[in-house]
Structure formats: C-alpha cells, structure tokens
C-alpha cells in the first residue's frame, strides 16, 4: 500500500492484501479452528518467537485458533491500524480493552477524572475491580505518589457533555513523572483527532460506538504509539503490541468473528459517517445556542422569535466542544476536522428532561452513541452520578433540518403540557 494514501482510501483498501478470494465484499469466516498445512516441510511446531512478530500481517503465521486471531477480526485490525496510525488490537468491548491495558501496564496508581471531569462510568467500574486510586489534579497525584510506570487515563471529548480536554497538557504532566498517558478517544474518532500527535502513549476506543457505527456490534480497541514502538524495536525490546497480543490470548476477550466482519463493513464508511455526524451536531448546537442567546430575535426564519422563546423556556444550558471558550489554539489543533458528534443539554427542570425523549420521533430514547441513528438519553437512566436535568444526544446522519424540527416540536409539546 502506497504510504501517501488518505484515510478515506485506506478505509476501503488497507485490507486488500488479506482478500484471498475473488469476492469484492469480505467473506464471512466463522471457524474457531483452522487446518494445519499438509506440506510436511512447513509443518513446524510452535515456537515462542513465531507467535507474533508485528502488526504487519504479512509476517504473521496463518490462523490457528480464533481466540488468538481470526480472519475477519484481523482485517478489521489491519484497517484500523492505518486509520489510528498505530498498531491495533481489537477486543470484545471497550471495557475489556481498558481492562487489557491495565493488566498489561500493571500500574500502582491510576489517575482518572472525578466528579464533573469523571468521564465514562464503566471505566471507573473496571478500576473499582482493582480498588485503584482515582484523581485529577497534580496535588492529588503528588499525594498518591503517581510516578514511573503509572497511568494517567483521560477521556476527550468527555462523556456525557462532549467537552474537550487538552491532550498535550495531560501528556506533559504525565511524562514529567514518568507516567504513561492513556486516552479514551471514543468520542473523537478519526478523522476528528489523532491523540498520538499530541503525546498519547496508548489510545483506547469503544469500537461499539463510531467504528461499529450501526448500533449492532460490541467492540473495543487499543492502539499503541507508533514512534515509541519503532524505538522499542530499534532497541531490541518487546513491543507493547506484542505484549498486549500475548496477554489477549489468555484474557480471552477477543471480538467475535461476525463482529469482526461487521467491523470491516463499518470502517469503509467511517469518515463519511463521522464527518456528517460531526457537522450535524455542530450545526444543531449552534442553532440551539443562537436561540439561547438572542432574546426573541433571530434573523434567519420568520418564526425565529417564537423558536427562541420555545428553546429558552425548555433548555437551561447547551454543552459541546464547539462552544468552549477556553479552547483557543490547542482545541483547533487537537480537533482540526470538526468536533465530536455528541453533545448535552440540561433542561429547565428534571421533569422536562424525563419527558422530552418521549416527544421525539427522530431520536430513539436509548443509551450508547455513535450509530447512524440519532439517540437521546435522559442520562439519569444509566449514570447515577449525573445531573438529573441532563440529556445526552448522539447525532446521527439524518438531514439536520429534520432533526432541528423534531427537537423544536418536542420542546413545544413539552411546554404545552405545563
Ligand atoms: C461506551 C464507552 C466505553 C465502554 O465501551 P463498551 O464497548 O461498552 O465496553 C468506554 N468509554 C467510552 C467513552 C464509551 O463511550
């Protein structure tokens, strides 16, 4: 594959060399076990060094058993390694990827956001299994003795608000102590951000969200910093990718073969979907924000005055990276191609937040995010710690004008009930 191909092209062609049939669409392989060769000259017993050389598939042995590798998942990993720009391993879900990361890095201390910087509640749940310490600021890191080999785990953009944090700043603070920076980049998939370009050591995604993109598969992904891997290879050290690969054999948390196939299907359209979703979300946010700010007067439609009043009577606050005042240059550098497709609203009252989803026709009331369908969730349904007026919105690929009208009609029917 020519090195200069763009991500949109790599999403379609990065796995071409793994296509060993004449099918244009990838073949569905479901076998758990694979025949050894009948060619006695090549029937070699297992040797440790042969197990995994690198993510370069041409150097890997053929498939043996699907807890180790499987054809559909290997194709999925091959494409994602190009899109994330670091060697990738796929797991059964996002939390199993995070668990695998902790098992591999084996830190004594893990720093992770608390309270309004809390991020995904499930990652806290994984940490609770280990009873590890949770902190956000430098004083707390000092007190906990966060240092060499420990882990700072950040999430950006952050669940559920969609607000972004500065990866370079966290990378510098972690690296000064010899700690690693792990970034959960689920809310900012390619082409929106590249955490390695800003100092991340390891990047995690819940592939259930944008990589899957159709609300029909669970998947987790870890990618390792490519420059550091080159350095490890140059110094004759074991790569992180290899260490994680061997761990995964024994953790057993691999993706199912059908999920691997669905994942390949999904990655083909990742850029199209994410760009459209990002544009839709940013447009919805700015449309709401304009009506929040301009009392009674918005110039763009005849009914704008009424629209503004409806929005202001319903919504208390809109949260999204596109509205961040503290963003400045780092935010534009970190997210040059658009902001994440998830944002949050706080409604005027808890009751309005509880009722709005049932008034909408184009937003399913459901948890999760990242699919082509727009979702809205009264976040209190799945996250205990969150403001009870908060609605999380995952914007899909529908026409944004239709989404605006659905929200506006929803607000109106809410207000009619008061
Ligand atoms: C969904 C999600 C996870 C967990 O991923 P699963 O695939 O559900 O295990 C972790 N982090 C973030 C930010 C998520 O949105």
Structural class: alpha/beta
Q: List the total number of helices.
A: 14
Instruction: Give every kind of bound small molecule, once each.
Output: pyridoxal-5'-phosphate
Largest sheet entry: 6 strands, mixed
Taken as a percent bin, the fraction of beta residues is: 5-15%
Stretches where pLDDT falls below 50 for ≥5 residues? 52-59
Helix content: 25-40%
- Please tell me how large the radius of gyration is: 23 Å
Strands in their spatial order, largest beta sheet: 1-6-5-4-3-2
Number of E-type strands: 11
Mean pLDDT metric: 91
What is the terminal separation in angstroms? Answer: 61 Å
Provide tags for this entry.
single chain; 418 residues; alpha/beta; 6-stranded mixed sheet; 5-stranded mixed sheet; binds pyridoxal-5'-phosphate
Describe this structure in words.
The protein is an alpha/beta fold and 418 residues long. The chain is built from 14 helices and eleven strands. It has a six-stranded mixed sheet with strand order 1-6-5-4-3-2. Helix 6 links the parallel strand 3 and strand 4. The longest helix has 24 residues. It is globular and about 80 Å long. About 2% of the residues have low confidence.
Write the layout of secondary structure elements.
Layout: H1 7-13, H2 71-84, E1 88-91, H3 94-105, E2 110-112, H4 121-130, H5 138-144, E3 151-155, H6 167-176, E4 180-184, E5 202-206, E6 220-224, H7 226-234, H8 240-251, H9 257-267, H10 270-293, H11 304-314, E7 315-319, H12 328-334, E8 342-347, H13 350-359, E9 364-365, E10 375-378, E11 390-394, H14 400-417
Parallel strand pairs: 2-3, 3-4, 4-5, 9-10
Antiparallel strand pairs: 1-6, 5-6, 7-8, 8-11, 10-11
The structure holds pyridoxal-5'-phosphate.
Pyridoxal-5'-phosphate binds at residues 93-95, 120, 122-123, 155, 159, 184, 186-187, 206, 208-209, 218, 220.
